[in-house]
Specification:
The structure is a homotetramer of 497-residue chains.
Chain A: E1 3-5, E2 7-9, E3 12-14, E4 20-25, E5 30-36, H1 40-59, H2 62-78, H3 80-91, H4 95-112, H5 115-118, E6 121-128, E7 131-139, E8 142-146, H6 154-165, E9 169-173, H7 180-191, E10 199-201, H8 206-214, E11 218-224, H9 227-239, E12 243-247, E13 252-256, H10 262-274, E14 284-290, H11 292-306, H12 327-342, E15 346-349, E16 368-371, H13 378-381, E17 388-394, H14 397-406, E18 409-410, E19 412-416, H15 420-429, E20 434-437, E21 453-454, E22 457-458, H16 465-471, E23 473-481, H17 486-489
Parallel strand pairs in A: 1-5, 8-9, 8-11, 9-10, 11-12, 13-14, 13-19, 14-17, 16-17, 19-20
Antiparallel strand pairs in A: 2-3, 4-5, 6-7, 7-23, 12-22, 15-16, 18-21
């Protein structure tokens, strides 16, 4: 008997009985729960609840809005084990990895606690004689978020804490693959004191998404997912008069320079390539070795290091990573590995069909290392989203950078070097939005903003951090002059007696 | 024999002989020049020139880019009479009005001179142990601007000075109605030291526009014009992967409160409603009087004041305003006046078919005042873009604000009052992007940003000012850690000698 | 048998047995505790502990420092009743007033939670070709705070939360009159995870103060107290090479304009003049009525309203305010009242020697209202620091403003009016640092900064808020160029083999 | 017959006939002009002129103040040759060096042109329900600058452009050694449109300085000079209630790491050590070589490079540097060289008593290189302010850093390395305010701020750049609530007609 994961609308947990879908434990392959799929009506109810809550929430001082986030942070920390367990059960990531994800989410809540500072406008005295002008950053109204399965706790927390402290109300449509932690976290925010209707969660599929994209009461949409969907979301939202930021896919390269500290590089790559089974848009999936000497050293050290990798269920914290999200996705990842071999690459470590004792029906792929990958290969061109590290060999840093710049995506990248000049040249010129120097997962901290370039992001403004304030508010500029000195000079002394 | 106004491509003035169009003097009705209309090939040449200039311009230090703007400002001031004459000849606005426009444009050049300050990124030490992170705001590449006839000098200067100092190259497609000053000003920027190809100007029509909107080398488009075109520009640019900000139409209301300083209000309205023949997106075209006492006083004082209005050719600086841009537009404005009367409004001052001695064929409309206008009338719902002030009578401030909020547009608005509380309530709650308190044309100064709400602006970011920096750059976030202390601790003392 | 309040040094509560002083309950007049008075040696131990803790604390990422403040906030909220009781027992303020004070202190802790955002430096790419420059705001080292009796919880929290998150270590010398809550709160911060030695508290008198002012390991001193002491602190600290901000006395005037909402004004003045027995540097102690009509109305309504004032012990929350801090101070306040009468003022409500049943030995002064006060009177020129509101009558706003500008102090001021122009003129021109418009206690919120002008503050930078970041850090500017492209271009491929 | 250099007071050039002093051409040793020395009365006249100009200047919109700076920049550029000649004649620096100085000064004028942006305050909506709060940065009033001989054009331009655009009036007391360019430049600013009295220049000596330091109308003092005088200025100004920033001496070290690009380092050091005869507070006067291999290479390459150095008069632009400022100073520099030799150092290149054909009476010292200098030597401990580079040999980077940190001064420093980690460790930990990485003169650009640490600067805020805004303004925080909705809700419809 499986439980049903419902919606949060106007402060109440609700279910839309009409349609449901199975939620799986990817480590066992078994359906363990069901999730309600909201129809158009249910989504519209959520929007209506948000719209009704807006006038009072908009007028709540930013400091009071922020204080709810302070309390929210406390509750997230108190309930972290419970949240990580839910993530593990439905997403499959190991508890330490889920804890890391949650911590990154909490960072965004912490940043949102600074709302009073972040919402300051600019005030100009005397733009003309006795004329003042200032800007205010006012909330948009009701805004929506559509989030992916791979970070069920973190990505929603990139969005609604900042949207809410800016004075907006929110409708969240999370992934239907791992909905439990999302709903639980939203309830914690209610418990922290958020008024009913300010945050609503609707589970669903395309029907729910399209309702959000076309309803005129929704003023903005934030999305994280794959590039084709991101493009659809962006164009549809724009066509319906909404502002939109849609984050898509990635193919993140690390350049290994000949002067790199190789032990450090290998150590960093291990986590960056295989952590969370590579199901991260910032996963480091391509290593570009400059010179065969560096490439050979990298392959040798990597191969050795990968012998220690442990794949298994979320509940055993000695595991390094868990299964991928579905059986279909496992097959797709395996297919990329096979295609690379067929297209001429060298399979150094083969992670297909690993043995995971006691979890024979789980959706596992082991850590995989492929050498001599070339840009023409399918596995190079597309995002694999699995625990696969591919190595491309080049003869110069320029060649390595050209590879990266020619790729469709421009999310993250990294260089391993000791040399100040190489690092500066790379970070200056590379056509990628998030750049690491000896940092393989250069995810910006919550007080900076997250965003890729090229087809990794559609929109002007990046996610979370300073850009989130601008995305979730509209600028109002006020110009003021007081023309009469009557009261001051006494003309109206006989004013209302 | 009329002159031909050409293009500026890669530092040279050029003509596209294939197609041309007449340019009129609206005060006489005579065609005085022709303008070349660029075909797709010519536009693509301009784009190619910009793209070729980009790498060197991008690497030019912001301070050096800014210094060209300092010199540009000097040249604009030196040549202001010449520029105002060109504007007068083709647009028709009186020289003092053109001078005001130019001054507002120069303000934006002055703001662009502050590029080194404006382009600073945020630097965070120790985002983790010995890890630093910072943001850089890098240029987009080649960007485009499409600008309207009503401010031939100012609106282009809202765009390219900021775009250029941010490191972008630019292709400008100005209005084909009054192209001369645009080309002249662009040449001054060349003279100021701008490298060839960094700014290009192409005159043209829909073919030129569509080439800019679809060419993949163009990374962003700024537009100012009417709402239907703005919407087309925005959706087309977005569909072709560009960021876009498109500013459209307006219907700007002033609320006249019972406690207003009425003489001041009337004096302000005069210029705000009739200046530049009302052909301004910030023109104050609707006065909403709260209470009949205020309305009667307003009508009476306005009627008296309007007797002094003088309409005529640009060259006589004692004129208050000039003709509208074309004969067709004159007929359209007259039609709105007629329709208002037909739909029940009271025509207090009728400006149709004014006598302007010696300019019988000019496209003139005189100052017009219409009382008892209601929201159902065509003349209320649409943007007239002529020297017509309509008065709507309401019974309360709430009713006045509801009128404004219900209108399709949300560009500018104003309240006349002496009361701090009324001003604060109004500016807080009104759904309009630019708000004046006793300031009828609340155009933000160049160091704030310009933008309406609702269907007056498509896009996230406003024009010029601080938002322009964010619009014309993409954020790059760099995270850096140096893993090895080898050199510092002496391991590599035996460095290559 | 009374308890002894000791010091907190290097994480441990300690007592300096050599000298002690009584701590009184001002509502009963009885000594209830003793406080240890630190000698030079003890203070130096505290400084040494802070200096030893500095290197590790300085290198702790700002985010981690901020997280201790998040936890500190939770603990302050959990223990608020206990803290308010301690304040009540030793300072005498009523529990609701102590709760307000604590809340204001917590606001500063909340602001300090934003340290990662607040500590961002400015980064400039290409200040010259391939040269970058950025600023860092580094901690000063060991800094000190010296705080007054009137806000035992709040004023220390103005200082050390911001000082600590900026990376400094701290030695606090609180008032010896009401030391218990200070020590208790400091221990909560230890409990929140602050490493030993980062915050130290030493109780003491002039010996302790002078040690802090002259020890060269102390890099900065923040002080709040009276003007003569502030001036001494400032000059002594500066002479010993420290940066210093020293906040002194005040005489805060409210202008009552003829158009003011008089009921609102009276209501506001009541709390602002008598709250906390007037022992606030922001207390509103002078009302300047413009015109006799306003003055008469003010006196009449004020007299009526004051009949409801209730004075008594902290523990009865129906009381409006409590005793003053000492018997000597009570006598001094009474003396000011007497002197005003003797010098010709009209005593409207006499608060000297009120009957407070059951607290006959308490240090009570009742709410006092004096009319027709003039600038020559002693009670006008000096800070009374008691529950005394004096009314000065003037004939114009200009006269009212001249009074304020001529006074030695320039801490806070306020105007009561409905008129936008009067408010703007007043706030623009008045020579006072904190200005209220219909706000009688214009204490800036924690995300702005607190500071008076003229002899109310010695130093460049104000307390807390944005200025605190600049006060508690020193700017370092780094300029960087990497001269050799050796590694990038492959010259050193044969680097470490 | 020599000319007399006078004062600029209230827009007029004036002389104080009572006392004068000779001004020398240091390349010839001849007195060429005289400078008037202002007595107390004259200085007080200047202060009075500034005070009289203040009310109108304070109310001039920042944009208009900035526009005078735009025009000032133009005039400085037009007259640059004339200015450089004046500098050359009186200071002795070669024309290319004077041009560089002037350019740096102009950078500060350019930064001041951004005043409207820089003066923006922070605006917070709803700090409480319907309560807003914002900050304004208001001018101080009349402020003073006291500047040194070594940068007669640049250092005054660090000060008054920013002070003026912030709304202050200014009294400048420049060096009496080279006063001509200062007066000339100030007159250009008058010509640019500055109202009379806003900037005043008084030449003088201690009497003038002390008048400025003690007159209560002066609200702030900026000083650049030697440390003992800086300390006197700072304490005296503070004791008289002024804010003060006083920049003093320096001893700037460069660390030469074993992995440095040695040719680049030598090339950089040449200009940094000997440019302007070493009479710069940012001169690089100590090279700390890490390891004897680096030291030997440095000495050898440096010795070779120094053979090409050319010393002579300002007018021959092929000269590298000119004379020092006076004969007495020449003797002092020579004395330091002699003392180093006597105390055991190795004199590699001896610049004492160089032959400069045709300028036998000029105050010349040639480029001097001293090896094996140790911290105990007088020449190491004190600031030489001459063309002398001393080399200290150490065994590790830690040792090099300890040297720097132990020195009394902390103005500038530099490291030569290719290694990212070494650069980051150095810039993070070194106790110096301005740090170069492969940049030997890390003078911050005008849009950052200039300031040393330790005994190189007295005061909280650095010179020019962002800190200058804070130094030259006082913060005012306004909190506003409008209590009555009377007008809005119609209570006062019957307003005074």
């Amino acid at each position: 008997m499986t439980a049903l994961v419902g919606h949060l609308i106007n402060g109440e947990v609700r279910s839309d009985a009409a349609r449901t879908q199975d939620v799986f434990n990817p480590a066992t392959g078994a359906a363990t729960r069901q999730v309600a799929l909201a129809g158009k009506d249910t989504v519209e109810e959520a929007i209506a609840a948000a719209e009704a809550a807006f006038p009072a929430w908009r007028n709540t001082p930013p400091l009071k809005r922020a204080r709810i986030m302070f309390r929210f942070k406390e509750l997230l920390e108190q309930h972290s084990e419970e949240i990580c367990r839910m993530i593990g059960e439905e997403h499959g990531k190991i508890s330490h990895d889920a804890a890391g994800e949650l911590q990154r989410g909490i960072e965004n809540v912490e940043y949102a606690c600074g709302a009073p500072q972040l919402l300051k406008g600019e005030h100009s005295k005397n733009v003309g004689p006795d004329i003042d002008s200032w800007s205010e950053f006012q909330p948009l109204g009701v805004v929506a978020g559509i989030t992916p399965f791979n970070f069920p706790a973190m990505v929603p927390l990139w969005m609604y804490p900042m949207a809410l402290v800016c004075g907006n109300c929110f409708v969240l449509k999370p992934s239907e693959r791992d909905p439990s932690s999302v709903l639980f976290i939203a309830q914690l925010l209610q418990e922290a004191g958020l008024p009913d209707g300010v945050l609503n969660v609707v589970n669903g599929d395309k029907e729910a998404v399209d309702t959000l994209l076309t309803d005129e009461r929704i003023k903005a949409v934030s999305f994280v997912g794959s590039t084709p969907i991101a493009e659809y979301i962006y164009s549809t939202a724009n066509a319906h008069g909404k502002r939109c930021q849609a984050l898509g896919g990635a193919k993140n390269h690390a350049i290994i320079m000949p002067d790199a500290d190789m032990d450090n590089a290998v150590n960093q790559l291990l986590g960056a390539a295989f952590g969370s089974s590579g199901e991260r848009c910032m996963a480091l999936s391509v290593a570009v070795a400059v010179g065969d000497q560096a490439a050979d050293a990298l392959i040798e050290k990597m191969q050795t290091a990968m012998q220690g990798l442990k794949v298994g269920a979320y509940s055993d914290s000695s595991n390094d990573f868990g299964p991928v999200i579905t059986g279909a996705h496992r097959d797709k990842v395996n297919g990329y590995i096979t295609s690379a071999v067929e297209q001429g690459a060298t399979l150094v470590v083969d992670g297909r069909n690993p043995e995971v004792a006691g979890h024979e029906d789980g959706f596992f792929v082991g850590g995989t290392l492929i050498d001599r990958v070339t840009p023409e290969m399918t596995s190079y061109q597309e995002e694999i989203f699995g625990p696969v590290l591919q190595v491309v060999r080049v003869n110069s840093m320029q060649e390595a950078m050209a590879l990266i710049d020619d790729h469709e995506y421009g999310n993250g990248t990294c260089i391993f070097t000791r040399d100040g000049e190489a690092a500066r040249y790379f970070s200056d010129n590379i056509q990628v939005g998030m750049v690491g120097i000896n940092v393989p997962l250069p995810v910006p901290v919550a007080y900076h903003s997250f965003g890729g370039w090229k087809r990794s992001l559609f929109g002007d403004l990046h996610a979370y951090g300073p850009d989130a304030v601008r995305f979730y508010t509209k600028r109002k500029t006020i110009t003021q002059r007081w023309p009469s000195a009557g009261v001051r000079e006494g003309a109206s002394f006989a004013f209302p007696s």
